[in-house]
Amino acid sequence: MDQITFLKMHGLGNDFVVLDTRGRDAVTTPALARALGDRHRGVGFDQLAEIRDADDHDYALEFWNTDGSRAGACGNASRCVAALMLDGRDRVRFKTDRGTLVAERAGDLVAVNMGHPQLDWAEIPLARAVDTAHLPLDGDPVAVGMGNPHCVFFVPDAEGVALTALGPRIEHDPLFPQRTNVEFASLLAPDHLRMRVWERGAGVTLACGSGTCATAVAAHLRGLTGRRVTVDVDGGRLDIDWRDDGVWMTGPVAKVFEGTLSPEWLRAV
Q1: pLDDT tens readout for residues 26-84
Q2: CATH number at residue 211
Q3: Cis ω on the peptide bond leading into residue 125 (within 30° of 0)?
Q4: Full domain range(s) for residue 152
Q5: Are 212 and 248 in contact (CB under 8 A)?
Q6: Which of these is catalytic: 74, 80, 151, 213?
Q7: Residue 74 a catalytic site member
Q8: pTM to 2 decimal places
Q9: Is residue 218 domain-shared with residue 258, that is, in the same domain?
């Protein structure tokens, strides 16, 4: 690894390093992800997305967390990369650990179909068979899988939740064998939610695409909203539409800068 170029992008402040390694070997390792994710000694990100070649798809995406673990899905990173790949096209199909996803332009925004939610305890996955709509945890949360596990709490005031105290405790609860993302949401209107999130392997983030989708699904299952809802997160606003073909998420993306990692820095990783 003599040289690696990258893009820094974000969706609603949910920020990413994007590596394009099509046509060559993949470069991301747990050590590289941890080093790049360091906001003081690296570049800093909530997740890293590596673009790979894929047969019968426009491309493939692999996601990594700041702690060096793999992320099965990342909605806002998917939208950010799609914004690059949609140049001159109306739609792209890409491969992830979640399966085949589709993204489209929506005016100045980007929409991605995050697929059907996983609602069975074994698919999410949970450690044992329980009612996923009413988990046996304090606060009566809902479990939803979106290619990664989510635990959604409905509270009177999402902004008053102590995320840094509750988030890691729930993330590592024995009920979640692969750990979990944790969302706290409050109902503003029958089509409007306020949500804050603790992401597994990353901590508090300004937005979480898959978490926003999971929260919208959970709200509809609880009878709080319809299948189409606007969700305000710390970094802005996403529109979620749970259609027959999957959960569509629409919102803005931004390209911040591109750079090259120095050989000296890479040798130290």
Answers
A1: 999 999 999 999 999 999 999 999 999 999 999 999 999 999 999 989 999 999 999 99
A2: 3.10.310.10
A3: yes
A4: 142-244
A5: no
A6: 74
A7: yes
A8: 0.94
A9: no
